[in-house]
Write a structure and sequence with these properties.
Layout: E1 2-6, H1 11-26, E2 30-35, H2 40-46, E3 49-52, H3 73-86, H4 88-97, H5 99-103, H6 107-121, E4 125-129, H7 133-141, E5 147-150, H8 178-206, E6 223-226, H9 235-238, E7 244-246, H10 258-264, E8 271-275, H11 277-280, H12 284-295, E9 300-304, E10 321-323, H13 328-332, E11 337-340, H14 344-353, E12 357-359, H15 366-375, E13 379-381, H16 389-400, H17 404-419, H18 422-437, H19 441-448
Parallel strand pairs: 1-2, 1-4, 2-3, 4-5, 5-6, 6-7, 8-9, 8-11, 9-10, 11-12, 12-13
């Protein structure tokens, strides 16, 4: 059996996708990853085959820097970083304006390449990143059965009257004005309509008999996989989802790191892990305020500085571990608290480790994810642009002394996520897809005809 994984050339997307593939690899099956060259080392680290597929202009092998991006993408990235300094709504508005080119990049060419890739690899099962819309068009237009996985908060797939790019929920301390939100929603509605029109135009070229979409952001594959714990998702929203499976968390295995392992074993002081992810570590001002807050506490700090120089964060206590990148899963396994921007990998991996969160959301689905963590009582969110070191310190102290009932809920969630990990859940979900289609390879090939349904 062959599993094909289709991922953008970004580490934050590929890592959880590749981790899903380990369930197939452990069963002795072939795993092929279609992605760009920047993340080739990650594919090789997992021991998978790689097929070259570029789904956008940009790339991110682990820490993104504007100067490493191609012309045009570098300016877009700098514009995004500057928007985060202006606040939540300006950031979301900036992202909405760029959405068509970002998420539906050269759609007809990419769709054709994906169809050729499927013909060449002849996979039995296909899992594609939900946000790889151009690739999904290729699969949909050729009637190739596939699963798409939402790697962010489930709100990345709109349901009901939701509009993509407009958060359906906000954390308590981040409440934009109604006027600003009205303007943002109108903008997102316009983007949705234009995006859907482009989706339908390409789909009609690929498959003239296909039904037009009313909202391309609400489209999904034959099986919807959600890289998120169901316990943190509102039941009323779950009821609106199409056929789906919650994966919980796709926690990956990491290569042992002697320096980190020695540091973790050094003493018993509470460990606080700090990371703003592969993109937003550029916000040195936020990291500097977090560092100032933590310097006043009896904790040890493991800080993934990313693209921020340690010199920009003030004095670094000798007990701290500060590096550009850290093995996040390993550190979370020993941490008492994590301070994060609220990216979905950070949130789900912290939940799997039973670690409460201080969240500083800056973009996309991070606001909705932070609201869910607050609603569950498993963390606190502050405004990254406004929180003072004193406020950050107070929040850290509160979370280090998490109430017993919240601590018990977090421990139970951690147990549930680790007892039945995401890769296993994904494999079970796709086995159900095969049963529906009438078998694995036969089901995929026969469902779309001998040439995968291409017309």
């Amino acid at each position: 059996m062959t599993l094909l994984l289709i991922s953008p050339d970004y580490a934050s997307h590929l890592l959880p996708l590749a981790t899903l593939g380990t369930a197939w690899a452990e069963a002795g099956e072939r795993v092929v990853v279609a992605t760009g060259p920047a993340t080739d080392a990650i594919v090789r680290r997992f021991g998978f085959e790689r097929e070259d597929l570029r789904l956008g202009r940009g790339s991110n092998p682990g820490v993104i820097r504007a100067e490493d991006q191609p012309r045009g993408e570098d300016q877009a990235l700098r514009g995004f970083f500057e928007a985060t300094r202006l606040g939540a709504v300006p950031t979301l508005a900036f992202q909405a304006a760029a959405r068509g080119d970002d998420l539906l990049w050269e759609p007809l060419r990419v769709a054709r390449e994906v169809q050729e890739l499927v013909d060449r690899v002849r996979p039995d099962q296909v899992i594609v990143d939900h946000l790889a819309f151009s690739a999904r068009l290729g699969l949909t237009g050729a009637q190739v059965p596939h699963a798409d996985v939402v790697l962010g908060h489930p709100s990345a797939l709109t349901v009901g009257d939701e509009v993509y790019g407009y958060p359906p929920a906000w954390p308590n301390r981040l409440q934009p004005s109604p006027r600003a939100l009205d303007a943002l929603r109108r903008q997102c509605e316009g983007v949705r309509d234009a995006f859907t029109e482009q989706w339908n135009t390409v789909l009609a070229t690929l498959d003239p008999g296909a039904d037009a979409s009313h909202d391309a952001f609400a489209e999904t594959g034959d099986v919807l996989l959600l890289n998120y714990p169901e316990d943190l998702h509102a039941p009323e929203r779950t009821a609106l989802l199409p056929r789906h499976a919650f994966l919980g968390s796709t926690v990956r295995s990491e290569t042992p790191d002697r320096e980190v392992d020695a540091w973790l074993a050094r003493d018993d002081a509470p460990i606080v892990y700090v990371s703003l992810g592969t993109f937003l570590s550029v916000r040195s001002d936020v990291l500097a305020r977090v560092a100032e807050a933590l310097r006043g506490l009896e904790v040890r700090v493991a800080l993934a500085a990313g693209s921020t120089s340690p010199d920009e964060m003030g004095p670094i206590p000798p007990s701290w571990l500060v590096r550009g990148e850290l093995p996040q899963v390993t550190v979370l396994g020993r941490a008492a608290l994590a301070v994060s921007h609220g990216g979905n990998n950070s949130v789900t991996e912290a939940m799997a480790a039973g670690v409460p969160l201080l969240l500083l959301p800056l973009s996309t689905d991070q606001f909705t994810g932070a609201a869910a963590i607050e609603a569950a009582g498993l963390g606190t969110a502050l405004d990254p642009n406004a929180a003072t070191p004193a406020q950050l310190q107070t929040a850290v102290e509160h979370l280090l002394a998490l109430a017993p009932d919240a601590s018990a809920r977090l421990s139970q969630l951690s147990l549930d996520l680790t007892r039945n990990p995401g890769p296993r859940r994904a494999r079970v979900a796709l086995a159900g897809q095969d049963d529906t289609a009438g078998g694995s390879r036969a089901g995929l090939l026969e469902a779309g005809g001998a040439d995968h349904g291409r017309r």
